[in-house]
Structures are given as structure tokens and as C-alpha cells.
Amino acid sequence: MKAWRSQSFPQEKQQDVETPNNVGRQASTFVFAGGRTPVGCWHGSGSSESTPILCRRVDATVQPPLAMHFFRALLTACCSTTVLAAAELNADHYLPFIPENVAIGHFPAGKPPILTVKSGATVRIDGGGGARWGDQDIDAWLKENNVPTSVAENPALAETARVLKEVKRAEGIPSGHLLVGPIAIEGAEPGDSLEVRILSVVPRIPYGTVSTLPGKGGIPDLVPRPWTRVVMLDLKRNVGIFEKGIEVPLGPFMGVMGTCPSEAEGAFRKSGPPGAFGGNLDCKELVAGTTLYLPVFRAGGLFYTGDSHAAQGDGEVTVSAIETANTCTLKFILHKGKLLKAPR
Questions:
Q1: How far is residue 308's CA from residue 324's CA, in Å, rounded to a whole number?
Q2: Can you tell me the distance from the alpha carbon of 274 to that of 50, in angstroms, rounded to the nearest whole number?
Q3: Taking the model in full, what pTM does it have?
Q4: How many CB atoms lie within 10 A of CB 186?
Q5: In this structure, what is the dihedral angle of CA atoms 320, 325, 326, 327, given to the nearest 10 degrees?
Q6: Which end of the chain is less crowded, N or C, counting CB atoms within 10 A of the terminal residue's CB?
Q7: pLDDT digits (tens, 9 = 90+) for 163-219
Q8: What is the DSSP string of 224-256?
Q9: Alpha carbon of 30 to those of 63, 152, 222, 275, 290: distances in Å?
Q10: What is the helix (H) or strand (E) element at residue 210, kind and residue range?
Q11: Are the beta carbons of 166 and 136 closer than 8 angstroms?
Q12: Cα–Cα distance between 262 and 258 in angstroms, integer?
């Protein structure tokens, strides 16, 4: 199955968003538009709320498949250096993964900003995830799955457990993505656009999980019972170890990145389906070195991120990627009066 099918992108969809002048300075820039579900971006889960999103790399001179081969090589180079360079990155601000900074499963429009920054600021953000232990003791679950760490040794695990225990849920939304935000950008107003430069994305825990349920994803009839696989992460070699002899190249990214949805979306917009504001894009190419442009619908922009992934294939066939907990470093640049109709 080939990715980036050009026929999935009508010409009119490519023309309806004006891009700021500095497109192309990062490793890649993407166009998102409503339409058929793409291979390699985001898939609907069968829910009536699903809003498929298309993404493609903008390149005026090189067309797929040549562009795709070039881009994959470029991403491989980016990913192989991300882990090594992450510790050297300095940020203007830091957001820990604590209950006060987190919303679960929705974008709360009334939540005050947890941080306000000037355009051009960089922010290092700790995320959570990897919590497949359910009601089981975390250390017992780690030992059972041969994960060589403990809650005492890895603060990210304790942080995720605390967030799941203490964060108040919105009515009717008992679970969902663990989202950090909102981050306000000074001067941002509806009609502006927000440039998000992804400088670094690095896993915080030594494993990720892949899971699915009967009747879900791309193989709904082939899953007789709930299923979870723990994938160990070898950051030195930049691979996920699925099992002996099967390894997956890592490409850490945040599955959810978006501004606060418009008032028309309501005060408690669920984080599952993406939208014009971004959100659960689940686009595996949003790795370090990529730039994402988002419309601004509310004062301050109110940016959220979460849903940490260590790697993802061409779509979440099981309704999950390799789910983990990441630290990302992002740079925010405001573009006044640059009206976007959808993420780019």
C-alpha cells in the first residue's frame, strides 16, 4: 500500500490556505485538508465523530514517489540525531507533567493558560503515557512484562500515575489523551496563525505499548480479545524491539498538537477526532525538524499537546501507535493576520 496518493489531494484543497513566508526552513511542512482517510496520517476508528485528515509534503518540484523516498531518508537522519541532541537543547520555559498542567480526553475552553509566552519562545514539555497497568500495581506490571525499571527509578511513571489519579474528568469524558496545556502566546487573536517548530521529541520511559480491542481498527474481525504488546525502546540504536528478530525504527512524535477549538466546537471538545484547529492528527511525520502551522480561534491561541508516540506505521491499524511518554521541545512563532482554514 503506497503512501501519499496524489489523487487524494484535490487541487482546490491545496490552494485554500495561505502559508507564512518562512515555509521550508525546517525539515518539512505539511498541508492538512478534509477528505478521504490517508495512508500514513490519521485514521477514523469507526466512530461517527471521526474527521479524516489528509497530509502531504509540499514540494513544487519533486512529486511522489521520488519526494517520498527523499523525505524518508531525511527523516531517518533527523530521528537518528534527535536522541543525542535532545539533552543539549536549551528552552526558555519548562512545563512538568503534573495534574495542574493536564486535561484528559478534551480541550477545556475555560481552563486558564498554564503558561504565557512571547512569540519566538521555546518550551520544553514533559508528557505522560505508557499506562497499561490498569488497576495492577505498577512495579508488578513492569516486572511481569520484563521492563527493567521501577516507579522509584523513573519519575515519568509516577507522574503518569498521579495525573490519572488526581486530574478531574469532564462530565461524560472519563478517559482519553493526556494533554498538557493550554499555552498562550502573547498577542494571538482569531484570524492569526501559530507556527510550531518541533525541535526535539524524546521518550521519557524505556518502553511503549501497542494495543487493540475486538471490533476496532483496521482488522476488527481478527482480534478475539483485548491485546497489548510491550515494546522495549533502544534509544542508542533508535529502534523499538517488538520481539527477538523484529525491530521497528523509532520516530518519536506527539500525536496531539493543536490550538483551542473555536466556540462552535463547544467548551469541552473531545480530543479523539482532529479538526481545523489540529488536535489528534496522529501524523507520523511530525517528528523533530518539522514545522506545523495552526489556525488561531481564540485569544492567546491556547496550544495543547499530548498522546506521546515512539513510532507509528502508515496509520494506526490497531487504533494505537507505540504509545509512550515523551518530552518535546517546541518553538512558537505568531503570524499576525495570516488566516488559515486548516493546519499546514
A1: 5
A2: 8
A3: 0.76
A4: 13
A5: 150
A6: N
A7: 999 999 999 989 999 999 999 999 999 999 999 999 999 999 999 999 988 888 888
A8: -S-EEEEEEEETTTTEEEEETTEEEE---EEEE
A9: 14, 40, 34, 15, 9
A10: strand 207-212
A11: no
A12: 11
The residue ranges of the chain whose pLDDT is under 50 are 1-85
User: What is the pLDDT at residue 217?
Assistant: 83
C-alpha cell at 31: 498541508
Residues making up the chain, counted from first to last: 344
Instruction: Answer yes or no: are the C-beta atoms of 129 and 308 closer than 8 Å.
Output: yes
- DSSP string over 7-55: GGS-HHHHHSSPPPTTTTSSSEEEEEEESSPPSSS----S-TT---EEE
User: Residue 320: which residues within 8 A CB-CB, separation 6 or more?
Assistant: 209, 210, 211, 212
Q: How far apart are CA 294 and CA 103, in angstroms?
A: 20
Q: Which three cell numbers stand for residue 81?
A: 540525531
d(CA 254, CA 184): 19
- Give the chain's count of helices (H) and strands (E): 4, 20
Residue with cell 490550538: 259
